[in-house]
Each structure stands twice: as C-alpha cells, then as structure tokens.
Amino acid sequence: MLNKPKIIEKWQKINRYGRPQTPLITKKIAIHYTGQADVAGWRTVSYFNNVVANGYKVNGKYVYASSHYVIDLDGTIYQLIPTSEQCYATNSANSYAIAIEVATTGSDNHYTDATYKSMVHLCAWLCQYKGLDCKTDIITHTDVVGKKYKLCPIYMVKNPHKMTQFKNDCANLKAGKITLDKIVNCTVPDYDSNKAISPNPTASPLPKMIRIKKDVNYRNAPNFEDSSIIGVAKPGQVFTVVGLVKRSDTDMYKLKSGCYITTNARYVDGIY
Ligand SMILES: [Zn+2]
Any idea which UniProt keywords this protein has (predicted)? Predict the structure, then answer.
C-alpha cells in the first residue's frame, strides 16, 4: 500500500463561488496548470481562498473557480476542497473529477523535480484511495474541453508522450514497482529515460555552505508548514550547513544556527 503524501490543509470556507458543497463521486483525476510559470502555488491557494471565495468580479461577472489540490514549486501539496465535494476547475467534468492545479517552471511550463514527485505521489495515492486506474483515469483539462478551448496543462498537452510517462510513473508507484525516491522527473529538458529505472542514483555530497539566491524562509523545524517559519534569508547571505534532512518531498539543510532551509536549487546554491 502506498502511503498518503503529506498534505497541508487550507480548507476553503463554504461559498457559492468555489465550494458549494455539491457531492462528488470521483471517476477521474484532472491535472491543470496554474497558468503562469514560476509563480508560487501558494499564491494560487490564496487567490481561490481569499479572493474568489469572497465574490470576485471580472468584467462585471463573478468568477467561479477552485481546485481540490494545488501543488507548489517546492513540492508542497495543499488541499482546499474535500474530495467528497465538487470544485470548479474542469468544466463539464466537475461532476466527476478531482482537480489538481500544478505550478510550473520555465518557458515551456515543465515541472520542478519536487513538483513532479508530488504529482506522481498524489495521483497514485488518489487512484489507490478512490479505486481508479492510473493509466485511464488521470486526465488533462484539455481532454475534457478540447484544444481550441484551452491547453491545460500546457506542457503535458504539447508533450503527450510525457503525459504517458507520467501516468506510467503513477501506475508503477501505486503497484509498488518503484519507490518514490526513484521517481525521475521526465519533464526536465535533459531527461534520460534510462535513469527512470536506475536502481541506485548517486547521491550528491553535502555542501559545506549555502548561498541564498532568492528570498526564502528559514525554519525552526524540518518542514514547510507556516508554523515553522522564523525568518527570511536574503539573496547573497551565506550559511554553514551541518546536516541534511531527507524528506518525502524536498530535502532540507540543517544549518549551524540550528535552523532548517530548503535544498531547492531555485533558492540556494551549494558551496562545496
Ligand atoms: Zn485547467
């Protein structure tokens, strides 16, 4: 049995624009992209929960939009709507599909390694939980609405063989043929399909220090929950690394100060 991934619950209040409490009987899982590359997924969570849910008009018309899950660039999985209720994401499939909005990166809107791993874990686990088949029941938004209406998620629609690989990864994880730490992101430009079955990828050595590239939270515990944030490290700052915490999503460095910080290369450079 596959373990449930770590999910941060950001329950949306009951409201007519995103969480009308209409019962959902799940038959499919629909993948979406949040629309603009390199925008953090928590912003999408905030848009749904704090803007749309309060009644938000565009061109004089209320926006009706929500998603069961949002996956962030660092692999964090947020849940906004219970899977027993419908959301507003997938047009005519809202009545039977769980929706997952996924943050993307780069000009082609591919996925970070952490995001890809979380997508595979969440989809495989949802298929197990809801009795679905990864190869036939994971769909794209475009599968429902057609290419003329929307390319969503745009990377998967433009690279259908990657969508097939993604579904295979989900099926293999669900079946126990591969473990989560062996999942390889097939959406990166230099993807080598041979690596997908490599039994023992070489672990990278621990850097002596890290240099901050972008504003990033440092924390008093090795997790990505709001409650562990104790400050923001600024670009150019350097910290001494004393350890590594292995996590199911993104690993974290333990710093000499006793704080923890992400290993995500978007935010930190290792100094060896
Ligand atoms: Zn979509």
Answer: Hydrolase
Segments of the chain scoring below 50 in pLDDT: 197-203
Q: Which helix (H) or strand (E) holds 139?
A: strand 138-140
Query: In this structure, what is the dihedral angle of CA atoms 145, 34, 115, 176, given to the nearest 10 degrees?
Result: -30
Place of tokens 């995103």: 18
What is the residue type of 59?
Answer: N
Residue-wise pLDDT for 64-118, tens only, equals: 999 999 999 999 999 999 999 999 999 999 999 999 999 999 999 999 999 999 9
Intra-chain end-to-end CA distance of the chain, in Å: 39
Is the bond preceding 205 in cis, omega lying within 30 degrees of 0?
no
For residue 152, how many other CB atoms are within 10 A of its CB?
A: 25
Q: Options 3.40.50.720, 1.20.120.450, 3.30.420.360, 3.40.80.10; which CATH number does 8-197 get? A: 3.40.80.10
Distance 190 CA to ligand 1 centre (A): 26
Q: How far is the CA of 153 from the centre of ligand 1 (A)?
A: 6
Task: Report CA(89)–ligand 1 centroid distance (Å).
Answer: 6
Q: CB neighbours of 116 closer than 8 A, spacing ≥ 6?
A: 166, 183, 185, 186, 187
CA of 171 to the centre of ligand 1 (A): 22
Kindly state the tokens that stand for 185: 């992101």
Residue 238 three-state SS:
strand
Domain layout of the chain by residue ranges = 8-197, 209-271
Cα-to-centroid distance, 242 and ligand 1 (Å): 42
